[in-house]
Amino acid sequence: MRTRVAAALVTVLSLAAAAGEARADGDADDFKTSCANCHTIGGGRLVGPDLKDVEKRKDRAWLVGFVTDPTGVLASGDPYAQKLLAEANRVPMTPIAGMNAKRAGQLLDLVAAESKLEKSRFAGGAVPDRAFDAKNVPVGRDLYTGAAGLKGDGPACIGCHRVGDTGALGGGRLAPDLTDAVARLGGRKALSAWLSAPPTPTMKRLFPFEKALDPEREILPLVDFLQDAAARHAPSERAPARVAFVLLALGLAGALLVGMEIAWRRRFRGVRETLVKEPS
Amino acid sequence: MDVRSQVSMVFHLDKCIGCHTCSIACKNIWTDRKGTEYMWWNNVETKPGTGYPTKWEDQEAYRGGWTLGPDGQLRLRSTDKRRTVTNIFHNPSMPSMDDYYEPWTYDYSNLFDAPEGADQPVARPVSMVTGEPIEVKAGPNWDDDLGGSPVYAANDPNLDALSPEQRLQMQSIERLVFFYLPRICNHCLNPSCVASCPSGALYKRGEDGIVLLDQTRCRGWRACVAACPYKKTYYNWQTGKSEKCILCFPRLETGQAPACFHSCVGRIRYLGVLLYDADKIPAVARSRDEDLIDAQRDMILDPHDPAVVEAALRNGIDPSVVDAAQRSPVYRFVKTWGIALPPHIEFRTLPMLFYVPPLLPVMSAKKDGAVRNASDDLFADVEDARAPIAYLARLLGAGNEGKVRAALRKQWAVRLHRRATTVGDVDRATADRALRETGCTAEEADEIYRLTALCTFEDRFVIPPMHREEAIEMLEDPHVWKQETGFGFRAGPKREF
Question: How many CB atoms lie within 10 A of CB A24?
């Protein structure tokens, strides 16, 4: 009887332990997909600050509030949030879909636990990184323009973004200009990390985990290409491209109208109006 | 010889008083629906004038009808197989609402509901398109009785046949002339509307030649609107289908004259069957302009000729229809007497509506307070009539003045003959000479007189039995048809998008 109770107790305890472990694993996955693209724990700054011992810098209540609603806190003019924004080249923290106080607390627990370790598994070791390689620039350009397909069948960047004057009409206007993306996101490593799991809502849907970019063959050539583009295109020469685009559109529309006017020059134009307009 | 029957029409322009009763009768029966407000399947125009739609006769602008190509083949002015595809979403020869008119009604309720005030309440014109009050600027008979002559009458395309001097003379007060031209669909033998339709919705009915537009097949491309040189197909903006005069075929099938014919106050309208040789259509439509009238008359067959009757019966035309053709007033006006002429046959659609040209003899001017006739002879020669022959020839003779002159001379001889017989102010010798000159016998003159002036309902409308019970055999067993009539679903034409 007693052994049975003990066995039951052991089972319950081990189940609880397993549940705790499972929870910790879930949190780690959550951190990996929602946070690691911008933050490390003890690996230095990426787009966002290093989170090691973050609770020594700011209290948990504030942190939970900021993680659940970064846009709201930034809009409220909170001085510490403004300081963070300035440090991040004014790239604001992306709101995470489905974030709530409970989940934020669990993530902060994980950060606290990992901070105590000698070497956290989120120290940025998984982020692809190496020095600029000019040989890879054409590879990156092909990926950007869509000349070479992405492994995960994601859409080519040029459909929405533009980089300098690459492509027929300089690329899309739907999404931000990527010409200075390397500098804006805080360096090659930060950009690589960001690309490995893009956090913004649109990019997240286009490049979910199963369609993630290949670190060696896609992310690094793209970063090389973007770094090369930033070096070749000064910010001042980007504005005229937009004007040229509008002028080109107006010109084409005008040419089309002239063409229609020529093709249908003998069309019926109404006779009554011309009759009654004549001086009688 | 491929003998077919065609229900044809004659309008006697000398009898038309321009009362528009025909237009109203048609409007009340057929085009009082939403989307058809601007349509006048029957309209009456004042000539000289620009008509409805404005200047419809100017095919340089409207590009309706057929043209003879350099290879001697007929071509549609408005479209062809290639252009049907390239222009299918933009037909470059489409008249707009401005060329018809913006239909309007009046705010009659204001006459009753207006608050008491110093001014008499008025019924403002309200657009039937937008529902907003409008300032009316055009209408289907805007130039009625030479209204707005300096603009409308002066721009009549038929005046191109006249020299500038003649034009000026025609507008001078003692020569000032106008007559009325009632128009319906001509139910042509070579209809350009049928040829132009990309959907094959238009067809010419086999048994009586009435040109109809199938509302279930029409896709609203409006190619027929552009192609008809008489502008007698119209687009219904409510149903998204085109519509046209149906010659009141439901009335014809029950032995009644079409509404516009039935209601005609001046009794100007005649309706009857003509037998014609369909094999000749291509050759006739390709004749030279000056030969067109004769060619079309040649195509119309003598229903008394035994060979024609035999060929007609062999072709499935019922003996009762042949009998109607033998009594047809149209045959007599067009073929026997040769005084009815097709309008603008140079459009080469071979219209089967014929007009007896108007005699407009009396010419007088007011001088020193007294009215003086230009000639003491009330029936001076047709050459001296107010309407220049060249003008009438442009309208009714494809420029062939001889045909118009012959038709007018014969009418003139008939008048002299009847004057000599009943009044006696013209001596018999003059009347006989006039008859001789026009190759008309006294008996023929009396017949023309009787059918013109004393015609009864039965004389004017010789409606053939339509034999629908036989026509339906081509499609279905008549007994099955009879049993099924009234069952199933049938929805009116409407937009499906």
Answer: 14
